[in-house]
Amino acid sequence: MTIQFNDETFHGDFTFKNSEWAIKRFPFPFHEDSYMYSVNMEPHKSYRPGSVFERTFDVDEHYVSEMRDRARVLANDPLRCQSLPHMTLAGWDLVELIMEAKAAEYPDLFELHKEGNRWRWVNKPLGIDDTFTFLDESTLPYGPMEYITRQTQGDFAVLDQRDDNLWMDAGMVTTQADWSLDFDIGMNFFEWHAPVPKAHEMGIFVRALKFLLNIQQGQPARRLNWTMTVNPLLDTSPENYHKWGVMKQGLTMENIGEKQHLRVELQTFFRLPRSNALVFPIRCYLISFNDLVTVPKWARRLHRVIRDLPEELAAYKGFIDNRPLMVEWLSQFDDGSPTSDGIWPDDN
Amino acid sequence: MSAGTAKLNVTVAEVKPVNDLVTRFKFVRTGGGDLPTFSGGAHTVVEMQDGDITRLNAYSLMSNPADRGAYTISVRRDDQGRGGSRFMHGRVKEGMEMVISNPVNLFSLDLRAKKHLMLAGGIGITPFMAQMHQLAMMGGHFELHYAVRTASLGTYAKELSERYPGKVHIYHDDQNEAIDLKTLLANQPLGTHVYVCGPKGMINWVHSTAGEMGWPREAVHSEEFLAPASGKPFEVKCAVSNKIVQVGEHQSLLEALEAAGIDAPYLCRGGACGQCETNVIGYDGKFLHYDHWLTDEQKAGGKHIMPCVSRFEGKTLVLDR
Questions:
Q1: Catalytic pick among A72, A223, A307, A323
Q2: Chain B interface mutation, best of A217, A222, A270, A275, highest count of B Cβ atoms under 10 Å
Q3: Is A223 a catalytic site residue?
Q4: A32 pLDDT higher than 70
Q5: Chain B: nearest CA to A275, how far in angstroms?
Q6: Measuring CA to CA, how many Å separate A130 from each of A94, A127, A141, A230, A286?
Q7: Alpha carbon distance A39, A205 (integer Å)
Q8: Partner-chain residue, chosen from B138, B274, B275, that has the shortest CB–CB distance to A89
Q9: Interface pTM (ipTM) of the complex?
């Protein structure tokens, strides 16, 4: 297999780590030295070989461990995966989308063999070799959405489209930045975005919804979003806030480089063909401050972005208390020189 | 977003006259291979190269959505129309290579419905054919009421009655048969959704009758693609691209923009989807709004126009394109 999979944890002893390869391809989200909300959508096309934008669904060195973490979270709380009855067809759409894409783009890791509706799916990294009947739930160990998303990195919001709105009627959500599927299920686009400050008055959501309603088959889109997390936690759910909220305390100049992580979501948007639903895969990438500052451009830029971020955004993203320390630590790596446009590291 | 949708290269595999007005076309992927799956109610935009003119018309996909081997559409000839349907009937032959768009669905089933009640008028039958395939496959509960002018113009009426026994009801205008809508609606189980596709009058009748009977707005669905209206030629200034564009008598504003090389998005080209909505920067004259998309308030406001179907009469019109 072409990818060396890490054996690592995202809780307890937190042995998560990024290799040099993973650092170099990290989706750094800031294309300039300041940040404000924008719809910032672009076509989800293959871009920059080796980057996380190259494949339809990125598979990296964290795959096997992330799937183990998902199974652990689900065992503790099965409500992280839910699908209202009318969304089963969308689940099958997702099975087809992911299996076809992964088999085509990672032939050494995944295989899909079809004989009519009789499908055989081979997932080598996870040691799975299943034969099932497409569109027959009784032939899978879980519902179709749960089956495939237990094998795919990132959260999945599966949205029904009706009445010119989008409804969060199914999902697999175990790596979220402090939101809850169990709370949001059945809500529409405006309802589940209600807590986001500033964006409403900027009219962002009306424009974003209009864009999303018009996402077409064969033309997926993507955007990056970000927040901060102390310790490499994938599961920062509101249900478990009592466990991870306290971890935000006790940061020092000595431990912040190791403990503080930038958390980036690669959000993609696909129209599903049979159900006409939309799926938003939300893939979470974590990088420690120590690893991030190995790229000088990112170190300088992150310092400026965090320093100048409006108060309410730092509060909404949950790091306002730690911001002075973050800025102080990051300032060591900012010599004031200019940064180049765009998100990629400067070529050496 | 650039104009239009992702394209598919297809070859015409079959051209089959169905009756005096309707011809059926079957497309397969050029060079072989599967076409994308679609959902019942979806349409495709067919590109027609008619001399110097590229005609783009949306047609509902009527084949089984699970069949990725071919797409099928039915085109009703409109001799008074602008030429798209005549091109399809007269010029499209088996073996011809064409370009169509990826499927787009503006008329999808509400999969929460306990029952799907479908009301079709004339060529409005086509989206329901794909939806019935899909529902039959999923074991969904549906019923079709289909009004046709005469038995001989009852496109697919016989075939559908045979395929879905007991679920299909045909009404012939020439025998004074009519859908008894009030009784029909009054006898539906809770959780029924109504879908209507046909002439404008029929769509309005279903919406207003259902509304008067207390049906929730979200439970009544309709689709009608409008043909772009002809009208007096007019001139448009495009502020972004800095071009002056002439719109001909039988040309839509959208077509004129495209012919001038101006990037103008679209999905349905029939006044329904909202994708081509364009901001008006300035005008001196009168808008002829024909679309379903803008609200009456927006239409009166003079700040927006849907170039796929709407026109303008007057001295100056400046658009944000």
A1: A223
A2: A217
A3: yes
A4: yes
A5: 6
A6: 17, 10, 10, 38, 31
A7: 8
A8: B138
A9: 0.84
Residue found by looking up tokens 């697999």 in the block: A172
Sort strands B234-238 and A155-162 into parallel, antiparallel or unpaired: unpaired
Report the chain B residue with the minimal C-alpha distance to residue A85: B112
CA distance A209 to B78: 36
Token pair for residue A241?
A: 């806030």
Q: Quick one: pLDDT at residue A233?
A: 93
Gap between the Cα atoms of A223 and A225, Å rounded = 7
Q: Kindly report, residue by residue over A181-237, the tens digit of the pLDDT.
A: 999 999 999 899 886 666 666 677 887 888 888 888 988 999 999 999 999 999 999
How is residue B151 written in tokens? 């038995």
Q: Which two tokens stand for residue B232?
A: 């007096």
CB contact under 8 A, A210 and B39: no
pLDDT in tens, A222-276: 999 999 999 999 999 988 899 998 999 999 999 999 999 999 999 999 999 999 9
Q: How many other C-beta atoms lie within 10 A of the C-beta of residue A323? A: 17
CB A260 within 8 A of CB A326: yes
CA A114, distance to chain mean position in Å, is: 30
- The overall average pLDDT reported for chain A is 93
- Quote the strand ranges of A15-73, DSSP E: 42-43
Spans of chain B below 70 pLDDT: 1-5
Instruction: Please give the average per-residue pLDDT across A38-63, as a whole number.
Output: 90
Contacting residues of B for A215, CB less than 8 Å apart: none
Residue A258 burial (10 A CB sphere; 0-12, 13-18, 19+) = middle
Summarize pLDDT for A319-332 with one digit per residue, the tens: 999 999 999 999 99
Region for residue A209 given its phi and psi (left: phi exceeds 0; alpha: psi -120 to 50; beta: otherwise): alpha
For residue A293, the model assigns a pLDDT of 97
Residue of chain B with shortest Cα separation from A136: B138
| Residue B3 pLDDT | 46
A273–B103 CB contact, under 8 Å: yes
Residues 40-99 of B with CB under 8 A from A: 41-42, 65-66
**CB–CB contact B102 A219 (8 Å):** yes
Chain A residues whose CB is inside 8 A of the B1 CB are 211, 214
Tell me which chain A residues have a C-beta less than 8 angstroms from the C-beta of B134. 274
CB contact under 8 A, A274 and B37: yes
Crossing angle of helices A296-308 and A323-331, in 10° steps, is 150
pLDDT of B2 reads: 39
